[in-house]
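For the sake of clarity, the format in which proteins appear in this thesis is described at this point. The record quoted next illustrates the convention:

___
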Amino acid sequence: MMNAGDEFDYLLDEGEMGNFMDYDMDGGFSDGGGGGSDSEDDYALLTRVTDTSAAQARRGRDIQGIPWNRLHITRQNYRKTRLEQYKNYENIASSGELVDKKCKQMNKGGNYYEFLYNTRLVKPTILHFQLRNLVWATSKHDVYFMTNASVNHWSSTSRALTEVLNFSGHVAPDERHNGSLLEGFTRTQISTISVKHNLLVAGGFQGELTCKLLERHGVSFCTRTTLDDNAITNAIDIYKNMSGGIHFMASNNDCGVREFDVERFQLINHFCFPWPVNHTSVSPDGKLVTVVGDHCDGLLVDSRDGKVLSSLVGHFDYSFASAWHPDGLTFATGNQDKTCRVWDVRNLSSSIAVLKGNLGAVRSLHYSSDGQFLTVAEPADFVHIYNTKVDYKKRQEIDLFGEISGVSLSPDDESLFIGVWDRVYASLLQYNRKHAYSYLDSYV
């Protein structure tokens, strides 16, 4: 991935980070009157903070509140322009073009989650354009996400927004643990977060890790994983180990993967690999770890000693996402070649499915807890929900406009949240799982 020293120069200039409001809209946002006051009125209309409910969407309102009737372009035509102009970021030239020639998309037509609500009070942001795991649901109503330097909590029932941690100033631990930096950190730039099992872990651009137990006041643990110049924390995986204890694994650009236990906040394992590690995920039984990073091939390793058990050969670029199916037999990897590949541990000679995106890298992956669905998020505009029960050959496509800061399924699979980063239309989209019998919907 990009080196830590470069990120603030390239972030807003990369083609992959195009904002919805930055594109030429066939004449801009004027309704054709040509006067300055008309343009100002139109811009006020476009930027007015308004939410969208399912009832409003059924009556024809755009789910993001975009007033297409006031613009000099239709949604359909803008989608066509966006697909033509969006530039996917690649570390290996033409990797996406190669995939376009070799792979076809799976059929659409699935209808598994339906739109419930979009709130523009929630304004997710992205600091590093390749890292998109910044939205985490801990229940069907509770979501944690990043806005600038703050980790915030959103309740979809009370519509309440609460700041949990603010990294713009000084953050220091309230507890004492071996290896913890009691002086804490000042003005930490957060690259990634994870929230699970009542634990919040935030990773920083200089290898910082900040841990907070959600039921406790303050911060429990702060540490810097490495003093390497290229130390950015790319991903954090929180999980239960083979004994049932809560652990987390941090993936860093210094080629290291570090495992911590949460009971004592102690470093248990430190594995080193030949290239920067962008993401890891631990199998449901805690025995295996998928490792992907700045190499076309991924790795499957033993969680106890970091020994490589198999290489994962098939992608054409660097990978930034991985996820395990609850059965512990299959897992997925997401790549900048615009594909997600699904693998079976019983035969790793090749992937068992190749799932192709529309316009960009696969930057976030999540299986539902019941194993029926795999959510695949592109860097912008599209989230795909694949049905695993039909061998991933059918999908639901969620179509929006804006960079995706993260996607998250609630632990009970009832809610799907999508963070949208945009200068004007930043928001949090919520979808609810559809049930075979409508009367069940009144209970979720």
Summary: The first strand starts at residue 52 and ends at 53. The chain has five helices and 30 strands.
